[in-house]
TrEMBL record:
PANTHER family noted in UniProt: 1,2-PHENYLACETYL-COA EPOXIDASE, SUBUNIT E, NADH OXIDOREDUCTASE HCR
Annotated protein name in UniProt: Predicted ferric reductase
Primary location recorded for the protein, binned into one broad class: membrane
Cofactor dependency: FAD
Bilayer-spanning residue ranges: 20-40, 60-79, 100-122, 142-163, 175-193, 205-228
Keyword field contains NADP: no
GO CC, one annotated term: membrane
Lineage of source species: Bacteria, Bacillati, Actinomycetota, Actinomycetes, Micrococcales
Record keywords: 2Fe-2S, FAD, Flavoprotein, Iron, Iron-sulfur, Membrane, Metal-binding, Oxidoreductase, Transmembrane, Transmembrane helix
Keyword Iron annotated: yes
Molecular functions per Gene Ontology: 2 iron, 2 sulfur cluster binding; flavin adenine dinucleotide binding; metal ion binding; oxidoreductase activity
Amino acid sequence: MPDQRVRHAVQHPAVGSGRVAAQVSLALAWLVMLGVTALWVSGGGIQEAGSSATGFFTSLGRLTGLLASAALLIQLVMMSRVPWLEQAWGQDELARGHRLVGLTSFTGMLVHIVLITIGYAAAQPAQVWSTAVDLTLNYPGMLLAVAGTVALCLVVFTSIRAARRRLRYESWHLIHLYGYLGAGLVLPHQLWSGQDFLTSPVATVFWWGLWALTAALFLVFRVVVPLWRSCRASLRVLAVYPDGPGIVSVVVGGRGVRQLRARGGQFFQWRFLDGPGWTRANPFSLSAAPRPDSMRFTAAVVGDGTARLATLRPGTKVLIEGPYGRMHPGARTRRDTLLIGAGVGITPLRALLEALPHDGGAVTIVQRARSEPEAVLASEINQLARSRGAQHYLLLGHRIPGRDSWQPASHAAWSDVDALRALCPDIAERDVFVCGPGAWTDAVLRALRRAGVPAAQVHCERFEI
């Protein structure tokens, strides 16, 4: 029989402040775009657009280029791992927003190139090619801008899902770094020949300020802070051991672990100073609640980066970025909790289960795996569940063929929503934490919406590049 106790919303300051931070950051992004448009208007953009066909294409080309530049800077800020942004949105939402804003910026950049070229060709199609060559060779910073555009095109094309699936994570990650190079190469063209950067002191301060702020945030939170934390924590590998077929667990420790203030369910970007490949960071979630002097993560061996984990030796120095993610107890808005994960995506939920306060709140954990040997950390999860009075359901088997479902084939008679309600009858009154492969996670999220779970109570991370 379902538990009939009255459930109370748990007040978490981090949740309320996170929502405010999300609203403030979104408002700031729109203010930047409005500011860009206002500067274009004040610089005579509307008058120029109405003056002639040439003015129309040139002026609109300037506007699309400016908006594309601003969107590119917003995109970089989203991935600069600013703590208050990351806590407000979570890495999953930031990554999705990053892709959307990036596609918008890239499209605007292409439109800018086409419109400007047509405008400079005096709106005569026959002169478009010669004008494009002239602009590239004779205008300040244009060769660098072309190189930057090529770099951004490479990033966008390899980020298409079909292309990403054909690339190793390490290759995709290396190519993706060209996005920063592309942004840097575009800057001289804008500063040297961009009319809207030079029309007034206000415009100059606005654009220089945006670029300087973006660069500062990136350097501080992607370089300086991680190095400082790594040096302060002085982390080293303590132990490495297999945890199932193709699964390896790594324990790291150091004098400054406590000062990292990591919480069960969060993740770090890890670098191991064991030789070639140490410069590449890989994201791994904690699979156990942090101890005062050690942390553990568990990963599936799926590529070169993860294959190296099994060969790590105790004593290897470790560099970290983090902790990141909102898969932790502080993200809760309700007293009761449902944890649902698949494959290696169960690892942060196992840590979260351990870290949840023993405040009397009901906890249910649903684990999906193709077979019992592939059920990552299942025995640990079962012991933890018993010790704290939680319910642990292990659902085994391949997904239902011909149906976009999160369930195993043995449950084909159940709809996704009915299965969730059978496992957790009061699901709409709980916080739900979801972690797993992208398509599987999407199926769970659809079922949660249909089951009436408010979006504010759903916290998810996808395990995909």
